[in-house]
Amino acid sequence: MGAYISVPVWERTIAQRYGLKGQRCLGCGAVLFPPKVVCPECGGHSFEAASLSGRGRIYSFTVIAGGGAPPEFEWQANAVGSYVVGLVELEEGPRIIAQIVGVDPRAAMAAPLFEDSAFEDSGGSSGDKGKRSLIGLPVKAVIRKVYEQEGVIRYGYKFKVVSEV
Amino acid sequence: MIQIISCGVYVPALRVGSSEIAKALGAYAGAGIKKKALPEVDEDAFTMAVEAAKEALLGMKTLGGSGDGSLPSARAGGGAVEGEPGRSATVAGTAGTGTSLGPGDIDYVAFASTSFPYEEKSFAGALAECLGIPKTAFVGEFGSSTRAGTEALISAASALASGAFRLALVVVSDCPGGGPRNPVEQAAGAGAVAFVLQSGENEDRCIFSLEGSSTWSKESLGIRSRRTGFTEASDLGIARHSRDAFVGTCVGAVRALLEKERRVGRGESEEKACEAALSSVGSEFRGLVATQPDARLPLDLGRTLGFQDERVLPGIVASDMGDAGAASCLLGLLAYLESGSVKPGDLLLLVSYGSGAIADALRVRVGRGVDEISRQKPLRSLLDAGTDVDFVTYLRVRGWL
Fold it and tell me: How many CB atoms within 10 Å of residue B120?
């Protein structure tokens, strides 16, 4: 059973899903995303709004193979087989989980995990260039279709590897 | 003068070669198309629109601080608004009234496509949320034919010319398609383009300006159509009918444009004056850019109007990305500007066609911003960066396998 998020609940989080709207703790200055009730850094609970740039780096990643996809992502697994999910460290600090688009999951898995080099952009040619680790690569947020529920297309952020930050 | 001061473009990364399709199906319907762009499984006209629009808005930011203050009623005072980076901030310390424009300054949005993800549900709120455009901005959506792109552009230009709006964003994003056995599908590509427009006189930031437009319509099914409730566009498949509808309607719009601008001389019949104008259109305009259901029809139109092929070819993008529907002629315009074959001051004739049949003809004056565009080549670099996929992958990404 996958995660079920009703449309009203979904809509309350639109600003963070579409616009990466987070918050800054007025106590310690930490930038939080998604917005929280209590600051995990200092325990404070006063915040101001803070928009995130959407730029960051891949901190870690995994590949979801077809059979392992949660039900709401089955349509995607059926179409492309497997897909990459990353832990992205945003420029402002927060680490968030999202799909990494435009990279070949097989190449991502075949590459050594820790190699400090720039990955070819999604459009890059195949071959040896693909054998580079995703970890550490600069990314930017893009809007993509995440899944459909209740007949409603749920859009949200995913990340795309860029050549420069 | 209506100026385009920033532009953004997006083409999905995947490509399907026409030879792949021809090999699998034994035939290929898209004349002159070498490969077509294929959206990823999680992309649609809306997501592509956001990507192109973000680029256009980003490009606008770099215009700031040039000290020209060309925005009609430039916002006064105020620093950067914390937590609201989309909002523009006056650049302090620069001479004059230099302003940096941001998404927060946009008050008119026109979004065009023939393939909106919903038949009923506006994408205004979604665009505003993704791009940081004020929720109070006027938003119009244009669809129902591949002419929608110029329809959006003309509407924005008119809105700015009226003085009621200050800064407009036009986003045209399209990914037409049909079913696996549908000939319309074979040529169907994808892409998005976005422009930021203002009414101003400063030439430095102007990529191109719009000097007039004309529309011409007649009752004709034209190239393709899709009835309510259907997901697949269909085409009669009569090449001659398609060509006649396309060329005939486009020539009608071009004639109307010339008629508008040339006063009929004394003792000269209107029709004769028009024919004379039409015969000189090839010398007045540097080149022709048209809607591209395939890569051949714009050349046919060019020959009819007196443009040699080499003055039409720089604006043909369908050969590398397939039929991008409502976005094709505007992507073509960008390709022409990138090609290096035009210089500031040149005139281009932009003609858009849609089933129905309707055509718009626009007079496009190349601005000084073209140098930057032809150096950066944002569209060409996207077209060159595609990843080829085979026929089976194509079917899977479309969700047919």
Answer: 5
